[in-house]
Each structure stands twice: as structure tokens, then as C-alpha cells.
Amino acid sequence: MKKSKFKYPLTRRQVLKAGLVAGAGLMLPLRFMTPKVRAAILADGLSLSDPAVQPIFQTPAANAMSAGFKYVPKNNKLRIITAEAVQMTGLVGEDGITPVPTTIWGYGENGKGVTWPGRTIERNVSDPPLEIMWQNKLKRRGGHLLPVDPNLHWAYALHGASSVNGVDYRKYSIEKDGVPIVPHVHGGKNDSRFDGNPEYFFSPGWKVRGPRWGDKKYYFGGSDWNNKAGMTWYHDHALGITRLNVYAGLAGFFPVRDGDDTGSPGNPLGLPADPYELGFAVQDRMFWNTGELFYPAYPGDPAYDDFITEQDVVLSPPEFPDNPRNVAGFNGGGPTALAEFFGDHIVVNGAIWPKYSVEPRQYRVRFLNGCDSRFMRLKLKVIPGGASNPDAIDPNADDGFELPFLVIGSDQSLRAKAAEVNEVDFMPGERLDLIIDFSVMEIPWGSRVIVENILGDSPFGGDLPEEEDLFPDRRTDRVMAFDVEVPFDSAQADTDIQGGDSLGGGVDVSDTINKTRKLALFEGTDEFGRLQPLLGTAELVTDVEGNEVEGSLTWFQPITENPNVGDTEIWEIYNATGDAHPVHVHLVHFEVMNREGFTADSIEQPTTQHNGTEGVGFHLEDIVLDGIVIPPDLAEETRRDMVMALPKQVTRIKMTFSKPGRYVWHCHILSHEDHEMMRPYHVGPVNGNSSGKKPKKK
Question: ∠14-15-20 over CA atoms, to 5°?
Fold first, then answer.
């Protein structure tokens, strides 16, 4: 077996190359056409949207926390549809003037349409359980809105050992049976069958049901659900196509309130409330100049050259000389999955580089990172006199200055005290809860405050980017702008939250530890030689079927994490890759304990794929800790469901498993979880096969 002293399988640059060498993907209407016809149309003028011609800070942003953007349940019931629509994002065509529409998939209600993002679901911890029936209306001529790689372990590829109910799902197709979906309320202490596990998917009309499908109706709330205010969100989680369904628009906010953080004016904590509480989902995308979404996947298409130039990828020599992804014709002409995706347009609540006009007062701003792969580090830059000035778009302007702000919470709770910072990290899947003071005591009236991103356009390794990690002439260094141009409404009381003010939050996980597990993150390759990120163990363990295993594991292999109901465990996550990964554990709200550096020998071993073939994985030997223990960051001192696992470090989290059943943990880089960086775990006794039987209805 191959042995190396903690040599990662690929460097950061090689990871990007391995993910992008496949080339460009095609969307509507081109995806219905033969390669020859498609090439002819492309040659006739269709190209990728140029960020340089797009308006910056001109399109108004919707506020996802406003009362008008929230669902209103009737008798604690909602019927939410997923359907296709056309949305104006502020994007203009090649002439830089003409607005162009974008076809999206959204959540909504019958008779009221759908939106990207979906409208906000808000609940209080004291509310009775909310019943949601999710209705799938995504059956369309030509199949998916985006290119699907059928070689991945995905919903309509299950068969044999990977199909727990014995159904051969290869007989189904998106073209014939519609798009499989399964909504997940991210951050909810959900019952297993309502958690949106990837194998719980269903097609339009529930005609095709995943091997663990549970019920048409989902329930969220009650005494055993979330018991403290925080920010959950909902998004699609279908097996092997999560990245595509979310990219098409399937995501939305789901805030939880309590008796202190009520969301109403005059709340006990003195926090800004509607209309001074704002919610913004940040995503990155690419578009055709016609306005349609672009997702790269097809080798050999003419748009490939544009895409490669945009991503600044070096193609020669290929990382894997025999890799089918390095030649046109993979999969019979495509499509193929990517290792990561980085878009060159920033989209906030479905609008490109929007602005939001504010009064000179404090605002509570809730951010959600809904990107596929993009880590950000956010700062605020004030441009005096820049409000509504179309030329005030550069966060690096000489006349600008930094504006400190307060971190008051993240993910699942407030902090114990408000903390003043100048910048904050922001990883995929994470939520931030901030107080920004736009008052004239802090900045001049008529100022523009730009939300700046100082990280790069490539996989994040923990450091600031180098030049090669940035798009040429990029605009991804800015997210949105706040223009201080609305007169102060004296009829609405201002708030006065200061750094150090008590908020009563923080973490509250039990100190009684039942077990400590050593887990790991790996980068291997699949049967085609494509980079394949994997989860696994950092120690020899016995799985629930009695097998001794260690190292990298794929999704359908027997469960290795099987805590008892009520157990509190520490998970030590060893990152044996060259990049940071945002790790999400379903069901639990955990405490980020600390991080510590380590070295280890990385030993190559075979990894079984879903189709019976073999890829390459690893296990670790001779792990040595460096003894330098790093405490959590300020934004991590809350109850969490996301944690950043940095390379060459072990990240320790502590959590209590409160409900029985099958759940999952995974990397929240969506391209990673779709390519096997996701594992099931089971709380309580495992019945039947290693992953547990489908839960019975209550």
C-alpha cells in the first residue's frame, strides 16, 4: 500500500483543477439539443454573462425577515409547493442595458407562485407542531433544469445493495418520472422520518418514493424540538442532486423564536425587530447572457473555453492521464460532476449584487451562506456620500473606511454577550446574526456601506487568498450594499446594543461524556479517477454489522456511529485533506470545543463505490497531536449545527443525541456531499439492515 507522511492527495490548486477540467455545462434551451445544434447556437452569439457589464448595488434586495415575506399557516398547517418560475434578478444582457429573465425553481403556495429564495417560515418554541405537506411539481419536458451526472450515487441510480427496499430505481428517470426532492429543515431537531434524509426523496405526485420514504406530511415543533431561538433554514436534500436542486433555487429561511428573542418590537433583549431585522441568503451563480442559469458539466462544448478562462485553471498536464473527465466524451458527451463550484456573480435573495436602503439606526442583519463551495470573510466598508451613487461600487476605494459591527449569534442561538469585530468568517451552510449601526454617530448621512468578502474564488485552506486564487477583475469581493438614505422614523424606537451587552445565549451541552469518537475527512478518487471527498474514521472501529473498519467510507457502507438516545459524545474530526470543510451534523445542536494541529501517515486503501467498483481512499496511522489547543472563534460560541474543519487540524465538537432513528452528517460543500462526503448515523438500536428500517408512522 502507498504510504506518505501526511501528503494530501491533491493540493488546493489541483483540487480546483480536478473539479473543473470537465468543462462547461449547458442549460435551457440548449440542453435539449444535440451537441452539433448546440454548438451552432453557441457560435451564433450565446455566451456566458460577463460580471463586468452587470449593475452593482442598483437592484433592491428583498428582506426575508419582513412580515410580508413570511408564510401564514392556517390551523398550524402549510402546503408548500416546489415548482418552476421565471424571476428577474437584476441581470442584464450582453448590451449591459436590457433586463433578462432567469428560469428558477422555488418554494411557494398554489395560487401565489414560487420564489427564490422560498418565503420564510417562522415559529416560536411554544407553538404547537407545524404540519407541512411538501408538494413536488417539478416534472418538465427535457428533465432537470441543470445537467445531472448519472454516474454519481444518486436517487435514480439505487439498485442492489444500495437499494435498501429492493427497488431498482434505474428504471426511473427525471424525463419520465420527474425530479426527486426531499426538503430538509437544516438545524431542526427533527424526528427521523421528517428530517429530509437523502433517501427519503419523492417524485411529483409521490409516484416514485425513496427506499426510506416516510410520509406526505412533515411535523416541526413541540416540546422535543428546538427549545431556543436560532436560525434554521430549509433546502432540498435529494440524494446525489442536492447541489443542483439548491442551485436552481430551492432554499429559504426558517427562524425560531422564544420568550426573549420574540422578533417583536419591545422584546426583552432590546433587539431590532421588523422592519429593522433583515434576512439575506448569499449565493454565487453563473449565467448565460440570456439570463438562464449556467452550471458547468459538459466536456467539449464551446462555452468550455470561456469557463476555463474565468476559473483560471491550468489544464496541462492533466492530473489523471487516463481520467475520462480529461477528454470530451465522458459519459457519452457529458455531463460530469465537479469537485467544487465557484460562481462569478454574487446573488442575495435572488438578486445580483443588490442594495438595501436603511435609516441611520441599528439593524439586526441575519446572513445565510447558501453557496455550494464558497467560504467568505465579511467586512464592512463605508463609502461616504456613496448612497445611490452608481459609481460607488469598489470596496477598495481610497476614500472608504472600515465599520466595526457586533456578532450577537450564529446558527442555533445568541451569544452570551455581544462581541464587536471588524471581520467574521462565513462558511457554506452557516448563519450569522449581526448588529450593524448605521447611525450618524458612526457614519455620515448619505453613506454607502459595502459588505465586502476578502476570501478567494477557490477552495479555502484557512489563509487569505493568493493572486492565483482570485478571478481576474473579480467582483466576488463584494456581496451587497446598505445605503443610509431613509429618514429616521422617530415613531419607531431605536435600539442600543453595545459590545459586551448580555444576551443570555451561548452553549449548554451536558458535561457527562458517554463516548469520544475519532472521525476523519479524506480526499480520494472514484472509479473514474475523479476527486472524491470522503468521510470516515480516524481509528479502527467495529460497525453495526460487526465488521472492523477504519479510514474512508462511502454512503451505503454499514453504520459506524451508533450513539444511544440521550448520550453525549465528543466527535474529534481529523481533516486529512488540503482544504477546509464545513461539517454539518443533523439532529444535534453542538458545542465547538477547540481545535488542535496534528500530523499522521496517510495510507492508501480501496474504497467501494455504490456500483460495486473500486476507488481510492485512505486511512490514518501514527497520529501525533501538536499540543497547541485553539479555542473556538467568537461566532462559534453559540449552539451550532455547522463547524469549520480546517486542514491539518482536529476539530472537537460535543453534542447530545436526543431522538432515535437514522440521521446523517456531511460536508456542506454541496458538490462534496453529492459525491459521497456524507455518512448515515443511527441513534438507538439499529433494526434490520445496517442503516435501519423505515421509521413507522406515529
Answer: 95
Q: Give CA angle at 383 (382, 388), nearest 5°.
A: 115
More confident residue, 469 or 332: 469
Secondary element (H or E) of residue 280: strand 277-287
As a whole number, the mean pLDDT across the chain is 89
Task: Name which of 641, 654, 636, 646 is nearest 591 in CA terms.
Answer: 654
Helix (H) or strand (E) holding 35: helix 35-43
| Stretch (H or E) spanning 553 | strand 548-553
Q: In Å, how far from its chain's centre is CA 139?
A: 24
Domain boundaries, the chain: 30-264+278-287, 515-683
* d(C-alpha 333, C-alpha 301), whole Å: 9
Single-letter amino acid code for the residue at 17: K
Q: What is the arithmetic mean of pLDDT over 241-259?
A: 98
405 in helix, strand or coil?
strand
Of 336-345, 404-413, 612-621, 654-663, the one with minimum mean pLDDT is: 336-345
Is the pLDDT at 300 greater than 60? The verdict is: no
192 contacts 659 by C-beta, under 8 angstroms? yes
Residue-wise pLDDT tens digits, 187-224: 999 999 999 999 999 999 999 999 999 899 999 999 99
Do the first three CATH levels of 30-264+278-287 and 515-683 match, i.e. the same topology?
A: yes
Report how far residue 249's alpha carbon sits from residue 284's, in angstroms, rounded to the nearest whole number. 11
Separation between Cα atoms, residue 25 and residue 31, nearest integer Å: 9
All three cell numbers of 154: 444518486
> Rounded distance, CA 5 to CA 135, Å?
51
Query: Dihedral, CA atoms, 121, 127, 133, 136, nearest 10 degrees?
Result: 20
Amino acid type, 151: N
pTM for this entry: 0.92
| pLDDT for the residue numbered 333 | 59
Q: What is the pLDDT of residue 687?
A: 78
| Measured CA distances, 266 to 263, 363, 379 (Å) | 9, 14, 29
* HEC sequence for 168-205: CHHHCCHHHHCCCECEEEECCCCCHHHCCCHHHCECHH
Residue 503: pLDDT above 50?
Answer: yes
Which residues touch 660 (CB under 8 Å, ≥6 apart)?
192, 565, 683, 684, 685
Q: At what angle do helices 303-311 and 12-20 cross, to 10 degrees?
A: 170
Tell me whether strands 424-426 and 376-383 are parallel, antiparallel or unpaired. Answer: antiparallel
Determine the straight-line distance between the first and last CA of the chain, rounded to whole angstroms.
50
How many Cα neighbours within 13 Å face the side chain of 471? Answer: 24
Q: Residue 324, preceding bond cis, omega within 30 degrees?
A: no
Residues in the chain: 698
Binned at pLDDT 50, 70 and 90, residue 29 comes out as very low
C-alpha cell at 586: 443533523
User: Candidates 2.60.40.420, 1.20.120.530, 1.10.3880.10, 2.60.40.1930; correct CATH number of 30-264+278-287?
Assistant: 2.60.40.420
User: Which listed CATH number (2.60.40.420, 3.40.718.10, 3.40.50.720, 3.30.70.141) goes with 515-683?
Assistant: 2.60.40.420
Do residues 345 and 276 make contact, with C-beta atoms less than 8 angstroms apart? Answer: no
Q: Of 450, 407, 453, 465, give the one whose Cα is nearest residue 432.
A: 407
